[in-house]
């Protein structure tokens, strides 16, 4: 018995020491006066992150395809930080290298310094639907925005960041879908996974220049499930008699959304429902603010992979690869239990799902 207690004390002590080491060596989060370049402030999550930055005194640049939306985001940020806040906006297509290069140059000139941080939060979501029913054109558009836009922007901004030697940082906003690969989200999961591959490569290369990289995996957003007008239903399926059905358990897509409801319970009450990055209801906005806070806490500690849900945390541990862990001892211990959890979860899904006879066609959320 004594040896068991000694082993337990050693394990717990190792986890605590690992956390203390992370605390002592944390880079903190000081962006006052620094130039932060944003994409994706047209969606509430990106805007919530930008608000956190301007509250910390950052000078921000917003780029995106629609000036009207950029101006609206600029106004929101100035409300948070005051009229004297330095917010530059530039309209451009994220996959057009010439336009993006011009945007980066003008942003650097406007703020009088090279980009210090890049936050790539641009996201094109496609409503969940079975892969064979998805429009290839929409899938290509999602890949352009979710991945190729990041490639173009970083290629344009990175030379000046390296030359400036300001210990820059690049933050990619991905999705927990790129860890979970749920039924019905194949159209987006691939492009979000590509972001992780890009981040892993950049992290290894940019260590040479003291530029850090982080990947954010936000989970499901929240709103009141009792509001049936906002509840998500997958495309209707029908039986041979032509009767439509939206079974919460029988349809794999709705089953996935139901599971996400439970897995995201830590972000709100059990009445949490499915939402997308584009939902602007008050409750969803509050959820985005919580996610932005989680991101900032992770950046403060210098974490590479940052998640907002329990399920995302477990999946990130399982698929960590060569990426640095947030708490090495705790995660290695937890791995013994994670495998059993996901085995049981998979068995529950396999015994509960029934394939639909026909799936609908998905469109943008």
TrEMBL record:
Transmembrane portions of the chain: 6-24, 294-315, 327-344
Recorded hits in Gene3D superfamilies, A to Z, give: NAD(P)-binding Rossmann-like Domain
Question: GO CC terms on record?
Answer: endoplasmic reticulum membrane
Q: Name one Pfam family in it.
A: adh_short
For this UniProt record, the keywords arranged alphabetically read as follows: Membrane, Transmembrane, Transmembrane helix
Coiled coil residues, start to end? none
A Gene Ontology molecular function term for this protein is:
3-dehydrosphinganine reductase activity
Protein's name in the database? Uncharacterized protein
- State the organism of origin: Phytophthora nicotianae
């Amino acid at each position: 018995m004594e040896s068991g207690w000694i082993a337990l004390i050693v394990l717990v002590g190792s986890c605590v020491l690992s956390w203390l080491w992370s605390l002592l060596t944390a880079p903190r989060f000081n962006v006052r006066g620094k130039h932060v370049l944003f994409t994706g402030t047209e969606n509430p999550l990106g805007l919530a992150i930008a608000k956190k930055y301007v509250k910390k005194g950052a000078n921000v640049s917003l780029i995106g395809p629609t000036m009207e939306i950029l101006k609206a985001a600029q106004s929101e940020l100035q409300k948070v930080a005051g009229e004297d806040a330095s917010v530059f906006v530039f309209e451009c297509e994220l996959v057009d290298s010439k336009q993006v290069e011009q945007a980066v140059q003008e942003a650097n000139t406007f703020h009088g310094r090279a980009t210090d941080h890049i936050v790539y939060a641009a996201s094109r979501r496609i409503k969940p639907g079975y892969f064979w029913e998805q429009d290839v054109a929409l899938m290509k558009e999602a890949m352009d925005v979710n991945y190729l836009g990041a490639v173009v922007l970083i290629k344009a901004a990175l030379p000046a960041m390296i030359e400036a030697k300001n210990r820059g940082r690049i933050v990619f906003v991905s999705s927990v879908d790129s860890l979970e690969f749920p039924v019905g989200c194949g159209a987006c999961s691939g492009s979000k996974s590509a972001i992780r591959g890009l981040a892993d490569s950049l992290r290894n290369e940019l260590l040479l220049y003291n530029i850090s990289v982080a990947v954010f995996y936000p989970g499901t957003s929240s709103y009141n499930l009792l509001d049936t007008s906002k509840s998500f239903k997958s495309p209707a399926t029908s039986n041979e008699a032509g009767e439509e059905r939206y079974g919460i358990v029988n349809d794999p897509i709705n089953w996935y959304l139901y599971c996400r409801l439970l897995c995201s319970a830590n972000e709100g009450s059990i009445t949490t429902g499915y939402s997308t990055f584009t939902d602007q209801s008050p409750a969803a906005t509050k959820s985005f603010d919580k996610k932005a806070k989680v991101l900032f806490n992770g950046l403060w500690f210098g974490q590479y992979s940052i998640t907002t849900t329990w399920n995302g945390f477990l999946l990130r541990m399982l698929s960590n690869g060569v990426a640095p862990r947030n708490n090495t001892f705790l995660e290695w211990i937890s791995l013994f239990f994670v495998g059993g959890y996901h085995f049981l979860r998979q068995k529950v899904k396999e015994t509960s799902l029934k394939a639909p006879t026909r799936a609908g066609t998905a469109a943008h959320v």
